[in-house]
DNA sequence: TAGTGGTCTAGACCACAAA
DNA sequence: TTGTGGTCTAGACCACTAA
């Protein structure tokens, strides 16, 4: 059995007997084409008429799926021309959960990582609260220094509920994204997250790690990520150097 | 002619002869009911079947409109129960353009304002660039100190293209929101905005105004707002005290 | 059981872009 | 002219909620 031939990921055909709605199945299929880069930015998505024929689904349902992808920012439509895969957006970190690697690539920077700490700990009270577990429950704690073009940019402090991903710390997170391991090895997909963003002053340890003066301004993000079943899995604290990192997003009136 | 009887805002009936799509007309009508608080948070929106009858529009189209309102975060649906107006969300400042007043109300704080500066100036180079006008073009410049429960919280620096709203500075912005004046007096609706968010150190003047020490961490937001025709109207710089203000939002995987 | 939203179909006609 | 997406209709059957 070869994992590459049978990815745990999305199927590529519709199962009419399944209880999963057709539009949801088709959504997973098309989304899979895009996130795996089988359809690349700028590529035209098959026209609605072709999707209707190919999957034997009504145009209304096909359009519902495309609407979802448009909402996700994965594709855009042009009347008379077609539907196209979006160029990676500039909505840095404020609409989709990005790994540090993805974020840096989008900014045209080369990512680097140094693992500072990797240990299993009992959940501190405040962390337990965010992850909806009892204090003392085993958590995987991973602390990493992030570099952009070799320069220190951020410090990430990650707490994972260990029973959902036992042995998670045995992998190497200097080179491969944590989210990738969670998805591949533990089938843990983080589909949703809540975060707060604040400006804070760098304490001594952070200042030293990031090579800034004491009390330098930092962008602090606290994020809790959830599975599709709304189970909280990860509490993440990120501290970005204020002089080197900005968030960008778009608002509606 | 009484403005209260004939608001410039949305009509409340469908015009089948109009070139504006039905779904868009219905969207404006329903959205109007909500933003004017004729339908209040928690209220049930008329069931789809009733909207179908009332406006003589097919259910598919009615559902398309409700989908848009759901996407806007204005309503949510519950199968078997109905569709309801949302409680004002906690997505503070990261998905909809909020006035300071709205923002404070959502946080349960009492807003206050002191106008620091109000003048017409020639556009500086950097500002002109953001607003897509030539350097030197007349801009209305408004600088305000914002208070929460009487304590200094933020400083807002606003630049408006003066020819779109001549005389805008003659109104009183200590008590009424700028956006409200723009919409009522000048029919300028800000429907979209782009912003960047950064942590910065408080310079001397800001530190004095906000009663923090020099170089204290501040959350800096730079925002350009656009009309529905994509004309940039306002460049806004906001500086929030880092210890008293946080942003919150939700992400998708 | 009655009323709600959730899913899905098979059409129709239109506006726009490109050849 | 052809092919694309944009708008709209009139149904159908289902799943869930509440009385």
Descriptive notes:
The structure is a homodimer of 253-residue chains. Chain A is 26% helix and 32% strand. In chain A, helix 1 (22-35) crosses helix 3. Chain A has helices spanning 22-35, 48-55, 59-71, 100-106, 125-131, 178-186, 204-210, and strands at residues 44-45, 75-78, 82-85, 111-122, 138-148, 151-161, 192-201, 217-226, 232-241, 247-252. Chain A is built from seven helices and ten strands. Chain A has 253 residues and is of the alpha+beta class. The first copy, chain A, has a six-stranded antiparallel beta sheet with strand order 4-5-6-9-8-7. In chain A, strands 1-3-2 form a three-stranded antiparallel beta sheet. The interface between A and B is large, with 40 and 40 residues. Strand 10 of chain A pairs antiparallel with strand 7 of chain B. Chain A binds a DNA duplex (19 and 19 nucleotides) through residues 21-23, 47-49, 57-61, 63-64, 66, 77-83.
Describe this protein with a few key phrases.
disordered N terminus, 3-stranded antiparallel β-sheet, 10 strands, homodimer, 253 residues, DNA-binding, 6-stranded antiparallel β-sheet, 7 helices, alpha+beta
Oligomeric state of the chains in view: homodimer
Most extensive protein-chain contact, per-chain counts? A-B, 40 and 40 residues
Q: Report the order of strands and helices of chain A.
A: HEHHEEHEHEEHEHEEE
DSSP helix count of chain A? 7
Proportion of residues in helical segments of chain A: 25-40%
| pLDDT < 50 runs, ≥5 residues of chain A | 1-9
> How far apart lie the N and C ends of chain A?
52 Å
Shape of chain A: globular
Average per-residue pLDDT of chain A, rounded, comes to: 87
Structural class of chain A: alpha+beta
Major sheet of chain A: order of its strands? 4-5-6-9-8-7
Q: How large a portion of the residues of chain A is in β-strands, by DSSP E?
A: 25-35%
Report Rg of chain A.
20 Å
Major sheet of chain A: 6 strands, antiparallel
């Amino acid at each position: 059995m070869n994992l590459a031939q049978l990815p745990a990921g999305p199927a590529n055909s519709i199962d009419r007997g399944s209880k999963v709605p057709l539009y949801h199945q088709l959504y997973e299929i098309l989304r899979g084409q895009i996130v795996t880069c089988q359809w690349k930015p700028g590529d035209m998505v098959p026209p609605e008429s072709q999707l209707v024929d190919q999957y034997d689904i009504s145009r209304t349902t096909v359009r519902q799926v495309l609407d979802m992808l448009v909402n996700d920012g994965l594709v855009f439509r042009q009347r008379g021309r077609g539907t196209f895969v979006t160029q990676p957006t500039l909505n840095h970190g404020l609409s989709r959960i990005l790994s540090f690697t993805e974020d840096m690539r989008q900014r045209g920077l080369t990512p680097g990582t140094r693992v500072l700490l990797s240990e299993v700990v009992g959940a501190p009270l405040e962390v337990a609260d965010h992850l909806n577990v009892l204090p003392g429950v085993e958590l995987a704690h991973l602390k990493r220094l992030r570099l952009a073009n070799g320069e220190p940019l951020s410090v990430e402090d990650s707490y994972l509920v260990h029973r959902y991903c036992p042995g998670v710390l045995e992998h190497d997170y200097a080179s491969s994204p944590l989210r990738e391991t969670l998805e591949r090895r533990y089938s843990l997909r983080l589909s949703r997250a809540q975060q707060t963003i604040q400006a804070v002053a760098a304490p001594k340890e952070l200042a030293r790690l990031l090579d800034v003066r004491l009390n330098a301004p930092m962008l602090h993000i606290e994020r809790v990520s959830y599975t599709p079943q709304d189970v909280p899995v990860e509490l993440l604290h990120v501290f970005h150097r204020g002089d080197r990192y900005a968030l960008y997003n778009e608002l509606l009136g």
